[in-house]
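We treat protein structure as text, and this decision shapes the records that our systems exchange. This encoding replaces a full spatial description with a residue-level series of whole-number codes. Below, we set out a record of this kind in full and without editing:
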Amino acid sequence: MDDQLPSRKAPSFCSLRYGLCLLLHFCNVVMMSQRMCLSLTVVAMVNSTDPHGSPNTSTKDLLDNIKNPRYNWSPKIQGVILSSILYGMLIVNIPVGYLSGIYSIRKMVSCALILSSLSSLLIPLAADAGEIPLIACRVVQGLGQGTVSVAQHMVWVKWAPPLERGRLTSLSVSGLMLGPFIALLATGFICQALGWPFVFYIFGACGCALGLSWFILFYDDPKDHPCISVDEKEFITSSLVAQVSSSGQPLPIMAMLKSLPLWAISLGCFAFSWTNHILFLYSPTFISSKLHVNMTENGLLSALPYLFSWLLGILVGQVADLFLSRNMFRVITVRKLFTTLGLLLPSLFGICLCHLSSGFHSTIIFLILASATVVFCIVGILINPLDIAPRYYGFLKGVTVLIGMTGGLTSSTLAGIILNRDPESSWPKIFFLMAAINVISLTFYLIFAKAEIQDWAKEKQHTRL
């Protein structure tokens, strides 16, 4: 597979698979907006001064409380509420990864997105009922979002020709970067104009509409789609002629555990998520401690890295597939090249943030560069499981996403502990630790990574024609 990719010319860019890719892109945008908006609305939801309904409250404040209900949540409760969505996502990663290779992706993604969106619509009601119902609502939302996050990757097992996997994957996944950018920009305006409950109503309604659209427009196999052209159907199926199906096949768990290429991908995903969480979760804190800007400016500056990540995420897929389509590099070379860029460049720019950024503009430039260059990994380690085991891609994505989330939770917790001890001078320690994790993981990946189908993932008797 590594050196025998089909060279046949693809049909026009305006094809059904790119339309479905764009639809999945917007599904990811709305899903991430639903996830991120609570981190901003909680500022409007929490009453940090007088108890709710104080007798001394003015008429103007009473009207504002009707539009923006407020609750007396401690910082500890706020932290539990904000993180509760991750517990739902952690629960479903591996089960969904396994089931996505057996059941309909069309139904799984559609139902999961609608579940997440219905949970978003219910959040204002749950918040009125108390902390426990709100936490439960967020956990359920995490179940839906975790399902979409893992199952969507199985779309490209049957819909993406090998020479287009990079661009189709990066275009669809880049919605995960655009979503927070939109949420950070739109939430404040919606809260001010309509009240914070409408943030959840708007994003929830959009998610329901997209979930229904996905169920109507997407089919699991291009051969079954009523709107696909004959040329496009033949192009996709012929390019995947040697790809096997995992339906009804037992998982070779022991072979997977002994697979060094799979361990290399897993360690790379751990480093990727470690870096991603540090740069995106702690950007507002870093900006506040270094630049001392107000909340509005901080929100805008914190949104900029997401915008550049979205743009670069779309570009890297095009470049990676260009290298492959013109036979400039082998598949494994492309995977290692972009993984190297995605782990080393953020480390380099992160260190520059601490030692070379002396002013406002240099700080913002290095922060944007550090955050945006992480997306090179999309066409590196994040897509590599599809190269080595397409028939088990869903399960492997579930495993690697779980390992990645472990890295993200560890890094964010550890960074919080380091900052709690010394908020002003702890940033170099955080970025040097991030660089060390990335270099160690990258070294292991460069030594052991592969891009051809592994022996344990082959099944010649079940070749799909």
The CA atoms of residues 166 and 317 lie 5 Å apart. Residues 1-7, 49-59, 461-465 have pLDDT under 50 and may be disordered.
